[in-house]
Amino acid sequence: MARISNEQLAHLPPDAAIQFDDRGYLRHFLTINGVPREALIQILDTAESFMTFGEREIKKVPLLRGKTVVNLFFEASTRTRTTFELAAKRLSADVINMNAARMSTSKGETILDTVKTLEAMHTDLFVVRDSASGASHLIASHLPEHVRVINAGDGRHAHPTQAMLDMYTIRQKKGGFEGLKVAIIGDILHSRVARSQIHALATLGVDEIRVIGPRTLIPTEIEAMGVTVTSNMMEGLSDIDVVMMLRLQRERMDGQLVPSEQEYFNRYGLTEEKLKAADNEAIVMHPGPINRGLEISSSVADGERSVILSQVTNGIAVRMSIMATLMGGTEGSR
Amino acid sequence: MARISNEQLAHLPPDAAIQFDDRGYLRHFLTINGVPREALIQILDTAESFMTFGEREIKKVPLLRGKTVVNLFFEASTRTRTTFELAAKRLSADVINMNAARMSTSKGETILDTVKTLEAMHTDLFVVRDSASGASHLIASHLPEHVRVINAGDGRHAHPTQAMLDMYTIRQKKGGFEGLKVAIIGDILHSRVARSQIHALATLGVDEIRVIGPRTLIPTEIEAMGVTVTSNMMEGLSDIDVVMMLRLQRERMDGQLVPSEQEYFNRYGLTEEKLKAADNEAIVMHPGPINRGLEISSSVADGERSVILSQVTNGIAVRMSIMATLMGGTEGSR
Amino acid sequence: MARISNEQLAHLPPDAAIQFDDRGYLRHFLTINGVPREALIQILDTAESFMTFGEREIKKVPLLRGKTVVNLFFEASTRTRTTFELAAKRLSADVINMNAARMSTSKGETILDTVKTLEAMHTDLFVVRDSASGASHLIASHLPEHVRVINAGDGRHAHPTQAMLDMYTIRQKKGGFEGLKVAIIGDILHSRVARSQIHALATLGVDEIRVIGPRTLIPTEIEAMGVTVTSNMMEGLSDIDVVMMLRLQRERMDGQLVPSEQEYFNRYGLTEEKLKAADNEAIVMHPGPINRGLEISSSVADGERSVILSQVTNGIAVRMSIMATLMGGTEGSR
User: Fold this and answer.
1) Which residues contact residue B94 at a Cβ distance below 8 angstroms, ignoring those fewer than 6 apart?
2) What is the pLDDT of residue C332?
3) Other chains touching C, judged by 3 or more CB pairs under 8 Å
4) What is the ipTM of this complex?
5) What residues of chain B lie within 8 A of the CB of C142, using their CB?
6) I need a labelling partner for B310 at 20 to 30 A (CA). Which of A134, B94, B171, C291 fits?
């Protein structure tokens, strides 16, 4: 099990440091930012050992038997919730799904009261999604030491399990990260996925990260993360090995940030034509669900360059890996 | 395991043929239409072996352990969803419930994207309900070969598991199908249940099928299915052995198709009085939930001729049987 | 296993008598009223044996393996439903969650039809919550002998599992019941929790039960239950060993029963200052979720006298105990 050194830990920003226990092992998975390369690699390696499970007759291992996993979703997402539910059940955990919008937070109880109440029921792992950046950090900082938290998306901040399944898919299809040119395309401004992807790609050492989108949807400070920025799609795609599309929220389409769906598609929608600018062997990724004809054409989404369904398959193994990695620490198995 | 011959397969309509794999075994259960008698009998026989389970101390068998069943309900139905959930859990499967109305189909993703995404998570069996006729066929035709689909009701088209539990109940109470006179009563026009019942009864060889209801609620082409039609309740019930009531949707009660609830009950509501026209030993069936005082009186629904609760009990065993039959093919156990 | 004698049974009111089978064992848990002291003590003792489970690596026992528990909630309550779901899963039962408001009761089927339908699926235990007093009694009286019912709150009538976890917590923190002075504070009028607490405290033999609240929120007949009533908070708290706060429903805050939130807090909100009137070692309880700044201050809720989170933890063990006690009778294990 990879661990972070005291030296490394001392240099981490507080929101990264909280993820490690005092021996340097990962206890929460809230952000990729600050997690050392070896820890990321180990998550990918462990995921690989879970990959064959999906094809076995009996898709279960007893690693989390008798453990209780709570899916605490303050923001609805059936798809993401399902991936965590499946991952936990295949590890033999008991799963409680809470649509927390309907819960007692609406009755004057704070989110922390809700979480502490659930923890008092001896739950072991919280998977948290919230529309507020920092929600899972807040929760993690108020729980006792043996309880784990996974960030399943918080505001515009981070979506680290999505980024890890993306990294798994890149390594699976490209053999590694060295020398790769990667483009992230779309609404960077509102995207927690993009932030986590950039941290992961940088840590794992790709050659170049390009960010492509309309100026209105690219945050001004993004170049400080070590990426190249362009609003020119063809220029940005040139020689790219990995094309990472982002989902465009239709609520951005009100004319303020994006002129119209048609114009957005014309300029930034990924088509067979535009894809020719990329490397011959480029792969196309998307976190899903896709907006056909908005950020991606159907022929690309369903085409031979697309690895979108592989991402979904890999997502189960990667989430099993992250859960097993975090929970390993409670079993004295290290 | 019963199988269909190449000869039989060649003569099936396409929506029936898709249900069989290339060796002639059932792989989906979408419609009764075209399924040969032996396959239906085998489903009933297998269900019989599951009947004692409900009364055992431990109501579980490990037949589907490690398999993932997805209840994909685009149309809400807590009752039907619960029967499939219980059947799957008693076979030891993991069950994911998806109320797909709340899912990503509302975000611009197509139903097929949703299904393919779920399939990429290595799910094994989809139980599909949709308000559109043909939805489960569409889904089945786009899935890889090893994934199974059960139609839990699609539009006005079919509800084959309901029809099979009805057949089980008839055989249980009457000893077989030969020589039986069966009446199906109510809103035939909108009823997927009636269509599946007629196919099943005809295949299993009852003596006579009568369809009873107001002219406005009987489709014109129904006689082509080999049934007798009447709008006269007493005439239709004469000498009948099995009375199959249909549920009347209250939204039909707007005066266009049915004059009023009271008048409907007077003419077609099943009462003790009207039931006297049927055979002395006639049984009364209803798919539930019942509308007391609309299509059936409380005294008949709760009376000694009623087998409505037996239908519910049998429904679990029949659904276990269908799931086990379809999944059997993935285990090389044939 | 404690049992009630024929003599005791003959003297019980009907709604208490229905809870016992003909050998005098508990089969339902609907109300504390009329349950003999020994039976309550045994539930607490059994709960104690489940307390260590929450801290074990594998938090499961196979006591209810293969049994089906239905959470039948006609009134939404994510928190309470979760406690029963967790308790049942840790006993290895299969759990079906039904939000019955969305169910067929809205389609003209009666509650009893719904329950009988579920029972016909061979379910073993119903956990029922309803806004109508007596709902779980009604259901219990219409089910066959081998099916069990737990009341998870019915109207203003009873919430016996909440009262039992409160009793467990008192015994845990105070060593027993003898000699204790207990205050129940808040909206007694609408509280099913208060009624069950009073029955339990009286049966288990505390020294004194005081009821504190505005006159408008105290039912006139309450003194007949053997309690002292006061509207003076400081007087009521004097020398108290156990402070049991009730949750104030914000919908009572319309000015008719309570003048304003601020004035309610000033008079009846539990603060550090008011708590000084109680015994030095007094404990503070609340069924949750708490309204901070309405019936209790944050500093008391989070303070060292508060045992609110212990109540939550104990609630799982107590509900496991009650489920195991009721189901024990179906296994011939007595």
Assistant:
1) A60, A86, A89, A90, B66, B67, B68, B69
2) 41
3) A, B
4) 0.90
5) none
6) B94
B324 to chain A nearest CA, in Å? Answer: 14
Q: The tokens of A127 are what?
A: 């998977």
Chain C residues with at least one Cβ partner in B under 8 Å: 65-68, 94, 96, 98-100, 102-104, 107-110, 113-114, 116-118, 120-123, 331
Contact (Cβ atoms closer than 8 angstroms) between residue B306 and residue B300: yes
Nearest to C68 among B59, B310, B315 (CB): B59
Half-sphere exposure of C184 (CA within 13 A, CB side): 29
Domain identity same for B200 and B263: yes
Q: What is the pLDDT of residues A226-275, one digit of tens each?
A: 999 999 999 999 999 999 999 998 776 666 778 788 999 999 999 999 99
Residues 6+ apart with CB under 8 A from C205: C37, C177, C178
Question: Which of A104, A110, A331 lies at the smallest CB-CB distance from C79?
Answer: A104
What are the distances in angstroms from CA C205 to CA A320, C36, C40, C171, C191?
A: 51, 12, 12, 12, 21
Three-state SS for A270?
Answer: strand
- Residue C178 tokens read as 């003898």
- pLDDT at residue A253, as a whole number: 67
Cross-chain residue pair C121–B290, CB shorter than 8 Å: no
Distance of alpha carbon A309 from alpha carbon A72, whole angstroms: 26
Chain C residues lying within 8 Å of A102, measured CB to CB: 76, 78
Same domain, B288 and B198: yes
User: Is a pLDDT exceeding 60 seen at residue B334?
Assistant: no
Residue with tokens 């390594």: A171
Confidence (pLDDT) at A1 = 62
In 3D space, the residue among B151, B146, B97 whose CA is nearest the CA of residue B122 turns out to be: B146
Residues B139 and B265 in one domain: no
Q: pLDDT for A26-66, tens place per residue? A: 999 999 999 999 999 999 999 999 998 777 878 899 999 99
Instruction: With CA atoms as reference, report the closest residue to C290 among C275, C308, C273.
Output: C308
Return the partners of chain B (3 or more C-beta pairs < 8 Å). A, C
The stretch B173-186 carries a mean pLDDT of 98
Residue ranges, chain C, pLDDT below 50: 102-108, 329-334
Q: Both A165 and A223 in a single domain? A: yes
**Tell me, what's the pLDDT at C288?**
93
What is the span of the domain harbouring residue C263?
Answer: 160-303
CB contact under 8 A, B310 and C121: no
Q: Shortest CA distance to B248 belongs to which of B278, B279, B221, B213?
A: B213
Nearest CA in chain C to B78: C103
* Chain A interface, best mutation among B65, B113, B115, B147, by max A CB count within 10 A: B113
Beta-sheet strand order (sheet of C208-212): C228-230, C208-212, C181-185, C242-245, C283-285
Kindly state whether residue B308 falls inside one of the protein's structural domains: no
Which residues of chain A neighbour B333 with C-beta distances below 8 Å? none
| CB contact at 8 A, A272 and A299 | yes
Nearest Cα residue in chain B from C330 = B57
Which CATH number does the domain housing residue C261 bear?
3.40.50.1370
Sign of the Cα torsion C119, C115, C74, B316 reads positive
Distance CA A79, CA A12 (A): 32
**What are the DSSP calls for B28-71, one per residue?**
-B--STT--HHHHHHHHHHHHHHHGGGGSSS---GGGTT-EEEE
Asked, for residue C215, whether it belongs to a domain, the answer is yes
